Amino acid sequence: MLPMTKNYFYSILLLLCCFASPLVAQENKQQPTAAIEELSFYPNPVSNGKIYITSKTSQSKEIAIYDVLGKKVLQASLNVNAKELNVASLSPGVYIIKIKEGEATATRKLIVK
């Protein structure tokens, strides 16, 4: 090979390696999660300071509520018999509620008036 052709070959090979690495890393990043069957929480928007969370199964639930900046503002656990979550400590606004039940997870928008 000519010296100039050799340099182009190595340059192209280096570029291919650089661009192929992030693609492989992103493939494994997102894994599908199971959805919570027949999940409902109400009322939404919340005006009385309490929300009720129900689903098809009667497992305990881990609840996390985040503000629009992604800061966790409330975390709670609901046992098998509990369906009521007190959110009176939250200021009026828009939040993200993440509900985990066993291996299943759901994320929804929550509005507090």
SSE blueprint:
Elements: H1 3-27, E1 40-42, E2 50-54, E3 61-66, E4 72-78, E5 84-86, E6 93-101, E7 104-112
Antiparallel strand pairs: 1-2, 2-5, 3-4, 3-6, 6-7
Structure description:
The protein is of the alpha+beta class and 113 residues long. It has 2 domains: 1-31; 40-112, Immunoglobulin-like (Sandwich), CATH 2.60.40. Helices cover 22% and strands 37% of the residues. It contains 1 helix and 7 strands; from the N terminus they run αβββββββ. The strands form 2 sheets. The protein has a 4-stranded antiparallel beta sheet, with no helix packed on it. The protein has a 3-stranded antiparallel beta sheet with strand order 1-2-5, with no helix packed on it. The chain is elongated, with a radius of gyration of 24 Å.
